[in-house]
Amino acid sequence: MDQQFLYDINSVPQVNLRNRTTAVLAGKVVGGGSAVNAMMTVRGTMEDYNRWGGFFGNQSGWSWEGLLPYFKRALNFVPPNRDVADSAKITYNTSFWGNSSGVYAGWPSFQYPATTITMDSFKGIPGIEFPGDSGAGRPGVYWYPTFMDPKLVARSYARTGHYDSIKRENYHLLTGSKVTRILFNGTTATGAEFTQGKSKQPTTVKARKEVILAAGGIHSPQILQLSGIGPRRLLDSAKINTVVDLPGVGQNFQDHPMVMASAIDRNLNVHPSGDDMFNNATFLTWAANVWAANKTGPYSIATGNAAAWLSFPVISPRYAEISANLTSQNHASYLPAGTDPTVAAGYRAQMQSYAAALRGNGTAFYNLVLSGGASNGIIVDLHPLSRGTVNIDTADPHGREPLVDYRALSNPLDVAIMTDILRFTRRYYMNNTLTTQLRPAELVPGAAVTTDAQFADYIEESLSPSEFHPVGTCAMMPRELGGVVDQDLKVYGVQNLRVVDASIIPTLPGANTCQTVYALQCEKQAADLIRYGSSKVVASG
Ligand SMILES: Cc1cc2nc3c(=O)[nH]c(=O)nc-3n(C[C@H](O)[C@H](O)[C@H](O)COP(=O)(O)OP(=O)(O)OC[C@H]3O[C@@H](n4cnc5c(N)ncnc54)[C@H](O)[C@@H]3O)c2cc1C
Fold first, then answer.
1. Residue 500, annotated as binding a ligand
2. Most buried residue among 33, 137, 279, 297 by CB atoms closer than 10 A?
3. What residues flank ligand 1, with Cβ below 6 Å?
4. Pairing of strands 306-311, 203-206
5. Which tens digits make up the pLDDT trace of 105-132?
């Protein structure tokens, strides 16, 4: 990944990860993360979005039903090539997709046969569903597309799909500029201040109607805090005048933690396979040639197109116990000392919702991407219970990047959940009637790791707290639950200011986040909320 397109930020040392720090990857380029991401085109389950709507009651448009039309408008789905779909057994259902957007959900022209075998191996484990499409809003094992323009066989993203085609006199895209704060007259947002290039001299731009902030999960809370919107105590210590004391800004920070867990199927003699890209010179030459000739073959695959997204009862025999433990926790005790009672109340509401989700089959907690080779690697906890913070650095709030603290594993039940995710992965490879003939051998964490204490040790040693999906720091929740924006994405306590990016996501979807951001940002917010002035779902199909 080209570092010039990324911010240079490291997290604060993670006390529960032996003081390790982690790189905070966020796109510093037109299109943001959509310009640098791994192009996995997935959405969460119905229950994920109903959880958002649930914070506002039954009438909320922020539910699966309310968002589905926007998921359809957000992407232009182009089905896979018939031959590839037939040979790889790719299923899809176009009723979950649209075809009007400039951002494409396409498919590579090649799939490794082993992908189908490793997907089918999940049939050896009870309780797993196989929804026919990744957009169905159900947990399970399924194929999903890629953010790719199928004609160009190139990344399709916010710039190519939206910005490049805007031809209006009143649209200006200023590259190399950095917003330093939002300007206010009293509590009414009136514009923004920014610097250009290396100049420290600020310029201002005035808003006739409203200011719309979309700087992402790390920088939107920073800009609000620098503008005087945030927890008063933090702003006081940074010597920033408080415009509105909004305790939730920069709190409720979530990202998807991941660890390595892999086994190798020693008898998986199916070729070509993902492994041939590393150790078969003839195959590599062929792959390079077909790519150079017509952009086909394995190089047309981004990060794979198949994965397991599984609910907790399917993977954990102790789901009821963990759910009960979450219900009875003193939730606020796992938040930073001095957390505002409204933010604590929001956390409690989220944990109650997750306690129910841990017992049900509508929320995916487990994710394993299938590589098309004899081994797979990274597994993801899709709903961490720990909450972090993104706060300005009070020592030099204007000069430094914000302090990013994942507070990984601060809720101890995250260790129990990750342990069961690891144990399930072992079961999938090693104790599965459909994989025994493949002669699997565990690579990591390794057969010697068996007890809870050993798993905890491995997790502390190796967990990465981020899959580069920062959300929650300007949460769309009621103000009395620590929310920062209302259902119309308007910032509480001020006028004429909205936030429209991943930071408003109150709880992570059980999926990579970009498709959800397209639905809420480009379509739901921009097309309807601003144009029609309300969050009523006015679009259909
Ligand atoms: C390495 C990586 C891999 C990922 N892989 C996937 C994937 O495979 N699938 C998936 O679904 N999601 C993936 N994601 C996540 C996805 O890209 C993000 O969820 C999405 O881009 C978030 O959109 P956003 O608008 O909230 O913020 P961003 O995309 O971060 O956009 C924010 C924009 O604001 C700009 N900005 C920030 N601060 C300022 C300022 N002060 N002044 C001016 N501009 C500013 C930034 O430069 C950026 O252009 C990945 C992300 C990364 C970084």
1. no
2. 33
3. 25-29, 32-34, 36-40, 177-179, 214-217, 219, 223, 303, 468-469, 501-502, 512-515, 517, 521
4. unpaired
5. 999 999 999 899 889 999 999 999 999 9
